[in-house]
Amino acid sequence: MKIVCDAMGGDNGSPAVVEAIQNFLKKHDDVEIAVVGKKEELTALEGKCEIIDARDVVPMEAGALEVIRMKDSSMYKAVNMVKGGEYSAVVSCGSTGGFLSTATLLLKNIEGVKRSALVVPFPTSIKGKKVVLLDVGANNENSPEELLQFGTVGKLYSKYVFDVEKPNVYLMSNGAEEGKGAPEVKAAYKLYKESNFEGFQGNIEARYALSGKADVIVMDGYTGNVFLKGTEGVAKLMGGMIKSAFKKNLWAKLGYLHVRSGIKEMSETMDYKSTGGAMLLGVNGVVVKAHGSSDAWCFENAIRVAYQLAKADIVNKIKEGLKSE
């Protein structure tokens, strides 16, 4: 398997990516990695990876047209290597809009896919279970027909990545009742019902999204991105508040000794860095967007996501699944 990594554009620069690749390769001898960036910053990977020199770095605020014009940028070169077919997956922690747009323009959507979606598995209250959320930011708005198709690709992701035999699917809404939601959600609900969509369970409110009862939750990209960032923010806030509470006095510190294993498990479960990255589902290639603030641990997990998805042959599974619908 061959994976290409864009080493530039993240908040922590190329050192975090270099360390992540070194750590990943220690655990996987069945993968070849190519890394794209300024070669003088990647010397620690000589002899371990193919190094492709790229002098331009895509700024975080860059849009699709700007990236397409920057043909000597690490991001453009990395995505283009997947287009050639030799590489199965690409990972980047650079500009989200630029990366997703470039991947869509260069790799093209799978035949039959109306819109690609950014997919992220999120932890739930059931230990070890993840819920698949889409779209979490590839689009600002989506049509009812696109929301219906998100259910199909989300099911395929859940089935082949998490081995859920018959995934259930919900629509994110402001109420569980059929008549709740924005006009697009109401129309999508109707399409799900009319098509007798297997596994469709109706609407779900955001407060129950991480309860563990849902395998797949479908929403438009704007709603999904707000939910994603809001949930990460609350998790970070709660973590800080719990930490402060156990530092108040000696008795609190002694109490912490009795519950620290549980606190540690909760922190690890809610740590977004353990997820690594989100996949742009629906294009002809495995495209994983790592957090812009990725440290070495986070980017290593993003490479792991790309590895798992490529190993599951998720792109061809989606193609086959869409044909059978």
Could you characterize what this model shows?
This protein has about 325 residues and is an alpha/beta fold. It starts with a strand and ends with a helix. About 45% of the residues lie in helices and about 15% in strands. It is globular.
Quaternary state of the chains: single chain
The strand count comes to 11
Which percent range fits the helix content?
Answer: 40-55%
Give the structural class.
Answer: alpha/beta
Low-confidence spans: none
Elements, N to C (H/E): EHEEHHEHEEHEHEEHHEEHH
Number of helices: 10
- What's the average pLDDT? 86
Q: Within the largest sheet, what's the order of strands?
A: 3-2-1-4-11-10-5-6-9-7-8
Distance, first to last CA: 29 Å
Taking all Cα atoms into account, the compactness measure Rg is 20 Å
What percent of residues are in strands? 15-25%
Shape: globular
Biggest sheet architecture: 11 strands, mixed
What are the defining features of this structure?
325 residues, alpha/beta, eleven-stranded mixed β-sheet, globular
Topology (elements, then pairings):
Layout: E1 2-6, H1 13-27, E2 32-37, E3 50-53, H2 64-69, H3 74-83, E4 89-92, H4 96-107, E5 117-123, E6 130-134, H5 144-162, E7 169-173, H6 183-194, E8 200-205, E9 216-218, H7 221-245, H8 250-270, E10 277-281, E11 286-290, H9 296-311, H10 314-324
Brief synopsis:
45% of the residues lie in helices and 17% in strands.
